[in-house]
Each structure stands twice: as C-alpha cells, then as structure tokens.
C-alpha cells in the first residue's frame, strides 16, 4: 500500500469485540495495529507509537473521543483520525469537523466499510501531499 512501509494504526474503543474486529481487518490490510480501551490509554499509545491513522470511538471512558481527537490534532502533522460512533444524530458529522476529524465511521460497520474509510483517508493524504506518509496509492 505504501512504498514497502506498513501503515501504523491505533484502534480506540471500550468494546473489546470492536477492537478485535478492527484489529483483524486492519492487519488483513497489512497495517500495524495497536489499541486502547479508554481516552487516557489512547493518548499514551499515540505518544508511544506515533500512528498514521487513529480509529477513535466517541463514547469511551476517561477522556471522550471528542477531547482525545482535539488533543491528537494539536500537532501540525498529527495523525489522520476516523471517529467511530453509534450515534445517529446528524450533528455528529458537524461536530467531527470542529475537532478536525478526517472521517466518521458509523456503527454498525462491515469490513468493507473499514477498508473504504481507510482507503479514503489514504487518498486524502496523497491528494494534498501532506502528512507523515509517503503514499503511492491505496
């Protein structure tokens, strides 16, 4: 997917089944995966692993996904963030823009949905020529 370089991802969700599913899907797409079950752990994992893409549930314990997203987006070249939500309100997409999330993935989702969003995030990085990834194609 990337000039011989694996995409580094962080999955953040307090539901172990979602974490297991996402880990399986992302590893099948040749991504390196680490995970966290709450907001505090997410920030620690992001600091330790410097992920390229973070899949971040909005409703997590400790610091919620909105706050974690805004903190991860503070650096100029922070990771791409895909918010995960089971919320059905239309405001979710608007609020995602306020915290500078790159995509929103709504539950329930399939393997194809995850891969589609991952591909879209890769295209965004490639089309604007920014980010920490050297993206050829996704």
Describe this entry's structure for a reader:
This protein is an alpha/beta fold. Helix content is 42%, strand content 18%. It has helices spanning 16-28, 39-49, 65-72, 91-98, 111-128; strands spanning 8-12, 32-36, 53-57, 80-85, 103-106. The protein has a 5-stranded parallel beta sheet, with helices on both faces. Helix 2 packs parallel to helix 3 (65-72). The termini are close together. 33% of the residues are buried.
Main beta sheet, described? 5 strands, parallel
- Name the helicity range: 40-55%
What structural class do you assign from the helix and strand content?
alpha/beta
Strand order of the largest sheet: 2-1-3-4-5
Question: Radius of gyration, rounded?
Answer: 14 Å
- Number of beta-strand segments: 5
Secondary-structure element pattern, one letter each = EHEHEHEHEH
Mean pLDDT: 86
Backbone shape: globular
Task: Give the N-to-C terminal Cα separation.
Answer: 5 Å
The number of helical segments is 5
β-sheet strand percentage: 15-25%
In terms of per-residue confidence, which ranges show pLDDT below 50 for 5 or more consecutive residues? Answer: 128-138
């Amino acid at each position: 997917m990337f000039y011989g370089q694996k995409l580094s991802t962080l999955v953040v969700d307090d539901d172990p089944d979602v974490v297991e599913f996402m880990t399986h899907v992302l590893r099948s797409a040749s991504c390196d995966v680490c995970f966290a079950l709450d907001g505090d752990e997410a920030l620690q994992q992001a600091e330790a692993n410097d992920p390229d893409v973070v899949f971040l549930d909005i409703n997590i314990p400790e610091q919620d996904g909105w706050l974690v997203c805004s903190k991860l987006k503070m650096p100029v070249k922070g990771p791409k963030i895909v918010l995960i939500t089971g919320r059905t309100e239309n405001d979710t997409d608007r609020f995602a823009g306020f915290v500078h999330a790159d995509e929103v993935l709504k539950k329930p989702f399939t393997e194809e949905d995850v891969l589609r969003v991952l591909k879209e995030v890769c295209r965004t990085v490639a089309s604007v020529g920014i980010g920490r990834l050297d993206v050829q194609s996704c």
